[in-house]
Specification:
Number of domains: 1
Shape: globular
Family: Belongs to the CsgA/CsgB family.
Keywords: Signal
Strand order of the largest sheet: 1-3-5-7-9-11
Organism: Sulfitobacter alexandrii
Helix content: under 10%
Structural class: mainly beta
Low-confidence stretches: 1-21
Radius of gyration: 15 Å
Mean pLDDT: 85
InterPro entries: Curlin_rpt (IPR009742)
GO cellular component, one term: pilus
Number of helices: 1
């Protein structure tokens, strides 16, 4: 098993020590596959939770998928900015690409990708968006953009 992982967590300037406890970020990654590449960034506020399970091969940034990405996304990167986002991703199979961005506050994302050569990309901006998706099979392409601004 080889996992390439980058993790960044930061709290906004001006947050007091008492507030920092309630704004803690949580990241759980389970990788039982191989050659998966993933970057997770949790910043600008806090209270984020990300649970990601990788059980396949060449998923994330390692995937060679067809299809354009939304301009603000990077293949294999999942970013949570703002306050109180929750994301649960389960990626299995081979050569599946994914990218995500949650900005604002209180978004929820739950996604499953199984199969091969799939691409899923999600952007949630504003407050309180919920996205749930499931991709099973070969060469599926999913794009979700939610905004409440």
């Amino acid at each position: 098993m080889k996992l390439t992982l980058a993790f960044v967590a930061a709290l906004s300037i001006g947050v007091t020590a008492a507030q920092a406890d309630t704004l803690s970020n949580t990241l759980t990654i389970i990788d039982t596959g191989s050659e998966n590449r993933l970057t997770v960034v949790q910043s600008d506020g806090g209270g984020h939770t990300a649970e990601i399970t990788l059980s396949g091969t060449d998923n994330g940034a390692a995937a060679l998928v067809a299809g354009p990405l939304m301009p603000e996304l990077v293949l294999g990167r999942f970013e949570q900015k703002g306050f109180g986002h929750v994301a649960r991703l389960d990626i299995g199979g081979r050569n599946n690409g994914f990218a995500g961005l949650q900005t604002g506050s209180g978004h929820f994302l739950s996604g499953e990708i199984m199969g091969s050569d799939n691409l899923a990309q999600v952007v949630q901006t504003g407050a309180g968006q919920t996205a749930v998706f499931r991709q099973i099979g070969t060469r599926n392409n999913l794009s979700i953009r939610q905004s409440s601004w």
